[in-house]
Amino acid sequence: MELFSKRNQKWIRFRVIRRDNGRKPGELIKSPLRNRLKQELKYAIQSNEYLENFLIVHNQRKENFYLHKKTLTDLTLRELGYNISSTIDLDGFEFKKDDARDDRFFDLIELLIIFCKKEKRENFIKRLKTIFKEEGSDFSIHSFMIFKGGSTDLRSIIPLIKEKPLHKKLKSFYTQSYNNENYEFLARTSADIIQLLTSSPQSKKKTKGYATSLCKKVAKEWTDESKAEDLANLLSETIKNAKKLSNQISNVRHTDRTTIPVGSPNFYKLIAQKNIQLVELIILSLPESYIIQKNPEDLKNNYLQSYRVEKDNVWLVKKRDQGDSIDVKDIPF
User: Any residues with CB less than 8 A from the CB of 217 and at least 6 apart, and which?
Assistant: First the structure.
């Protein structure tokens, strides 16, 4: 399974060596959001409604439920190559060391989404997405995957882009944008991306209609139906203007004598930023069209079959009569 930390290895390595908005290295989210997510995980476990039985211990003596440590240890070692319980306390979901590892916390969330009961997964995801939204986070969930959206960039979801040419161009743009002031290169790459994104896959003649339809889809995601057409028209004009700028400034898409030479790199910076912001808006508004949709139920079933795990296996700490001795068989770890 490609979970959050594996999909975002390069981005995480860059992130953990610097501080952002007062956060410590390794912190990807603020404390209030992390605390709410922890409480939601606790609820999902303790209610015994959401997760498959083989992950949960039913302690009849204390009348509560909690994660089965050995099962989760086996699962994370097999799929992630590390033991999640060495980083996170599985009772309180607190980090065991001073250093935060939100990437591994996100791994745990994604695993619990995958190993949800099929009929409860949608509700679980909805509850988590509501928390991300209410806390103003630029992280969200698509399928079982947590990705960083908002208006920042697409770095965290580049591995999930369906179309290979689009994936390659986006990867090139964001790789070069790290501490790179070669705005001319970024302008050229961003112009290629916006052109690719708004071009018809059928023929050049159909590109105009395709781009118009695309703007309408984006507009419908973000405004009332009565204003969707107005917003779509504004968005369409903005894309046309961005393309015109890319076409008429020298060394972006063309180098002939009719283009306009410029003496300041700020023009190329403007083009790069304008284009990539439009790209981000389109992709993040319509993730189903551009981001891989992996079926979490298939991932769960593949794991269960590969390791011959019975999902309905029940771990019990049974009640005992007063005076009974402790039976080692009753201890589920």
Answer: 285, 286
